[in-house]
Structures are given as C-alpha cells and as structure tokens.
Amino acid sequence: MTKDPTQLGPLVLAYIGDTIFDLYVRTNLIASTDLTAHGLHMAAARRVCASAQAEAFRLIESSLTEEELAVYRRGRNGHMGTVPRSASIGDYRMATGLEAVIGWLYLMGRDERMNELMGMIIKERS
C-alpha cells in the first residue's frame, strides 16, 4: 500500500476493517459448519452486525495495546452519517471502532496480531 495507514481517516480504516472482519467470520463458518449457502449467510449476518461486533470488542478490549486503543477511539468517535435502525448508537460506534482497529492492523501489515485478535473473537463466539 502506498498510503500511510496512520494518516487515513478512521472511517476509511473501518471501511476496510468491516470487509476483513466479514471475511474472517465467513471463512470460519465454512470451516466449522456444514450450513447451506443461505444458512452461512444468516449465521454470518448474526456475527457481523453492530451488536455482535460490540460484543466482540468487549471480548478483546483488555488485550489491546495503547496504540490499538487509540485507533479504536478514533474509529468510535468518527463522524458517521446514519445509524442502522437495528443498532443502538453505542453498539454502532463500538463496532466502528473495532472495524477501524482491524482495518488498521491489516493495512499496517500486522497480520499476526490481526489473526490473534480475530482468533480470540471467533473462539469465544463459536
């Protein structure tokens, strides 16, 4: 990547982090279940919604470094347009912060750390 991830806006980090989070969840579902395509979609949707991501953040919060927490706070406090009706503003902000951390780790090339955190989330959610 030619852009410095530390200079990207928090919602840009969350944008890519959302995709990475979703990919981890979907990959885990395929590996650990025998669900149909529709079943996989429904199970993934339950795991990537704002409330589930807020819960995921709570699982790893105490394991985050100060640097990761700073990225989380930037993402959580980023100015967002609208909040889905199915999510509380608190859960949505927390989910956005988590996505920003995942996106930042991905763009920084910190795959081992990203795998560690996502592993913690997936293990607890299985």
Report on the structure:
- With 126 residues, the protein is an all-alpha fold.
- Helices cover 74% and strands 0% of the residues.
- The longest helix has 23 residues, at 10-32.
- The model has no long low-confidence stretch (mean pLDDT 93).
CATH superfamily: Ribonuclease III domain
Question: What is the overall shape?
Answer: globular
- Give me the CATH fold name: Ribonuclease iii, N-terminal Endonuclease Domain, Chain A
Query: Mind telling me the C-alpha Rg?
Result: 14 Å
How would a crystallographer describe the biggest sheet? none
What's the total helix number? 6
Number of domains: 1
Topology as a string of helices (H) and strands (E): HHHHHH
By DSSP, the count of extended strands is 0
Low-confidence stretches: none
Q: Look at the structure and give the mean pLDDT.
A: 93
Helix-strand category: mainly alpha
CATH architecture descriptor text: Orthogonal Bundle
Helix content: over 70%
CATH classification class: Mainly Alpha
First-residue to last-residue Cα separation: 33 Å
Beta-strand percentage range = under 5%
